[in-house]
Hints:
Organism: Mesorhizobium huakuii
Number of domains: 2
Pfam families: EF-hand_5
InterPro entries: EF-hand-dom_pair, EF_Hand_1_Ca_BS, EF_hand_dom
Keywords: Signal
Number of strands: 0
Largest sheet: none
Distance between the termini: 27 Å
Order of helices and strands: HHHH
Number of helices: 4
Protein name: EF-hand domain-containing protein
Amino acid sequence: MRKSTKLALAFAALAGAVGTTAYAENNASAKMRDGMMARLDKAMSDSDGAITFDQFSDAMNARLKKLVAANGGKLTVAQLADALEKARFERMARRIIARYDTRGDGTLTTDDITSRQKKVFAMLDKNNDGKIEKSELPKGHRFGRHRQPDNDDSVQ
């Protein structure tokens, strides 16, 4: 391959990576902005349409200030990362329990998991023969991607 072609491909790959990162950052920024605006709207509606700096500050960073206070007035990167990770995993756990919890009591049991699996299996078993075949899987699913190579696939 010619050097100019290699450089062009490398540049295209780099541009794609930068573009993907920029998109993710813009998406995260948009979510943060939307969250900030929702908190401002709530604070303003709670205060007849106008807020003071103290109300603004409380609406913007109440959770962050609580974390700082709970850690003796200083928050390290590790402490903040732990808090963010915990909040993220708690959101994920709530979504999983909401998806599986058949009784609506906020708990997850093996019966809940089995019930969900049976529903998904039934949806995939399009011909109701009690088996899922490759042809029944959604398009784009890469069945067998982790299979062991057979004799024809092995390197000699």
